[in-house]
Amino acid sequence: MLSPLDYFFGLFSLDIGIDLGTANTLVSVRGKGIVINEPSFVAIEKKTRRPIEVGARAKEMWNKNPKNIMIVRPLRDGVISEFDITAAMLNYLINKAHEQTWVPIPRPRVVVGIPSGVTEVEKRAVYEATIGAGAREVYLIEEPVAAAIGAGLPVQETRGSMIIDIGGGTTEVAIFSLGGIVISRSIRVAGDELDEDVVQYMRAKHNLLIGEPTAERVKVEIGSAYPLPQERTALVKGMNLVTGLPHTVEVSSIEIREAVSGSVGIIIDTVKDALDDTPPELVADLMESGICLAGGGGQLKGLAERLTDEVKIRTYVADDPMTCVARGAGRVLEDYNNLRRLLVGLERGSTRH
Ligand code: ADP
Ligand code: MG
């Protein structure tokens, strides 16, 4: 129960939900919606290890940065590999969200979405980084749970529901019933891996050397998991590996589908594997409610159709799939009494080192 004092403060305080994604970090503020949506990139000055840019401006420098600057993706594989840099990024973003409010209000309460399966040490690291960034209270929630809440799935109810959240570094699959996760899977195959597939394909089939940013653009433009009603082409600029000179190649959506098919297959097998372990009664529920796709990678063209075809359960993309985690994390504070049991606890006395 909220004490009257908590309730009083709640009226004036800032409630924030944060999606600490491997590709994008989003901040939602109660009553305002998404106020920050920035790539999880930090530009660091090598000599001092001081962050000089965060977010979109740091991503723009990716693969073109001068020698004295290093571009870091501190969450790249779904774990916090660079604690100090993650903390600096959180600090910058929370302060930016705080600055956008025009009344002087107490420090915010924050719910942070973390990849499922992170270790106790990593959880503690996020907790400390968020406190260090000026939060008054910090709660952690597993990303698939936040994604499901944000997508409007009935996670509190008896009937089953299912989310597939495909981000940059990880794909998370979770099946809910009775207010908790019944089955879950987390794999390190997601959007980044598809980009890598495109880089490899262009090198092997077209002798063209391209960077990850170009590969990502090609994937978003013409990548797919299922034949498209109208196949397309894209022009890809890179360096010819034979001549060493700049070169442009035209590729088709059929080729790019082929390039990413291995990784897409792994994601589909993971979904099938989770469904294999699901009790039949729950599968029957899912056949009614369908499977919800969230995360940026969930928008891959034809993925919903392909999954529907392969697992025989209607699969659909959530509304605004890239903001589900931040919106879901934010909603927990609005309905704290009902949703708090979905939060992740921290072991008492555990420390960062
Ligand atoms: P994270 O939660 O890890 O931060 P996001 O949910 O923000 O990740 O998704 C980022 C990933 O989604 C990136 O790999 C990006 O390339 C991919 N992505 C974004 N839009 C599309 C699209 N339209 N088609 C395919 N992939 C996409
Ligand atoms: Mg995510």
Please provide the count of β strands: 17
**Molecular shape:** flat
> Uncertain runs with pLDDT below 50, 5 residues or more?
349-353
Following the backbone from N to C, one meets helices and strands in this order, namely HEEEEEHEHEHEHEEEHEHEEHHEHEHHE
The main sheet orders its strands as 3-2-1-7-8-17
User: Are any ligands bound, and if so which?
Assistant: adenosine-5'-diphosphate, magnesium ion
Category by helix and strand content? alpha+beta
Q: Could you give the distance between the termini?
A: 34 Å
Helix content: 25-40%
Oligomer: single chain
Helical region count?
Answer: 12
Biggest pleated sheet: 6 strands, mixed
Mean pLDDT: 89
Q: Approximately how much beta-strand content do the residues carry?
A: 25-35%
What's the Cα radius of gyration? 21 Å
List keywords for this structure.
binds adenosine-5'-diphosphate, 17 strands, alpha+beta, disordered C terminus, 353 residues, binds magnesium ion
Concise description?
The protein is α+β, with helices and mostly antiparallel strands.
Descriptive overview:
The chain is α+β, with helices and mostly antiparallel strands. It contains twelve helices and 17 strands. A six-stranded mixed beta sheet has the order 3-2-1-7-8-17, with helices on both faces. A five-stranded mixed beta sheet has the order 11-10-9-15-16, sandwiched between helices. The chain has a three-stranded antiparallel beta sheet with strand order 5-4-6. β13 (233-240) and β14 form a beta hairpin. α3 runs parallel beside α4 (120-132) and α5 packs across α11. It is flat and about 65 Å long. The two termini are 34 Å apart. It binds adenosine-5'-diphosphate and magnesium ion. The site of adenosine-5'-diphosphate (ADP) has 19 residues, from α6 and α7. Residues 21-24, 167-169, 191-192, 216, 219-220, 223, 295-297, 299-300, 322 line the site of adenosine-5'-diphosphate (ADP).
